[in-house]
Amino acid sequence: MSAASYAGAAVAQERLAKNGQRGLTRWAVALVLTAGGVGLHVIALNFGTVAVVQALGTLTLLFALPISALRYRTRISIPAWIDAGLTVAGLSLIMSLSVESDEPALLTSTGSRYLSLVTLILVAGLIGASTTAGPRTRGVLLAAAAGVAFGISSVLSKAVMAAFADDGPAAVSLFQAGMVVLLGIGGYVLSQLSYRGAGLAAPLATVSVANPIVAAIAGVVVFNESFRFGVEGRVVVAVAAIVMTLGVIGLARRTAVATPSATDPADRAVPTPTSP
Predict the structure, then answer these.
(1) Among the four residues 13, 46, 130, 150, which has the most C-beta atoms within 10 Å?
(2) Residue 155 · residue 218 · CB < 8 Å
(3) pLDDT tens digits for 152-198?
(4) Alpha helices in the chain (DSSP H)
(5) Angle between helices 174-194 and 135-167 (to 10 degrees)
(6) Which phi and psi angles does 78 have, rounded to 5°?
(7) Which residue, 77, 80, 49, 204, is CA-closest to 140?
């Protein structure tokens, strides 16, 4: 449902772009659908591992594919179906092997501060590297920074939800909640900046891949999340992640590519929002 909300928001954003960012109703629809996607995503984090919930966020691209086809009245190509199949196959394996930790997904004050510090340093480093890079590389670096911000924002969101469910509002760390907001907004801004001069395909693919990978690694390290069947299971998950990544990259390219009938620059892409 979260991914569907984000994909619906993409339609409103695309129409906003086509109409020069004008239209109160379009703005309201885009904001409501985006907020709905964020809310559903945060709630989902309370019921599953970070790896699964973040991986499910890539379904936004699957929804964006038929939206793009309907919008431009084109058929979904066989390669696009293959990319969709790879994404679903990899996602299914990750979901079937992921195991929630026996302990509540809580973060200590010290742990959350260290995690936030490392994240901010990494994001700042990627932003700094982008300032001297060419347009395409700059877009990819900013998208990677956005993916890191989104991924860790989800990890902290899970900690906030766990604390809330465990002991009520009084147990929620204001620092963690503040970092969720900061990283979420920062990731959104960085993802939008990444499209300038770099097109949509490369940044969209980068943030769609970096987000779940960073979140899954952090989930394993911070929350002791794991996968079934020990080492063998981890190997299968790694292969599944590669398969899903190939599918996501393909979907991002096909979502962003211009269609034969698109002549106006605003019609050349469906700007898919990225889930936090």
Answers:
(1) 150
(2) yes
(3) 999 999 999 888 888 888 888 999 999 999 999 999 889 888 877 76
(4) 2-18, 24-45, 50-56, 59-72, 78-97, 109-130, 135-167, 174-194, 201-223, 230-256
(5) 160
(6) -60, -45
(7) 204
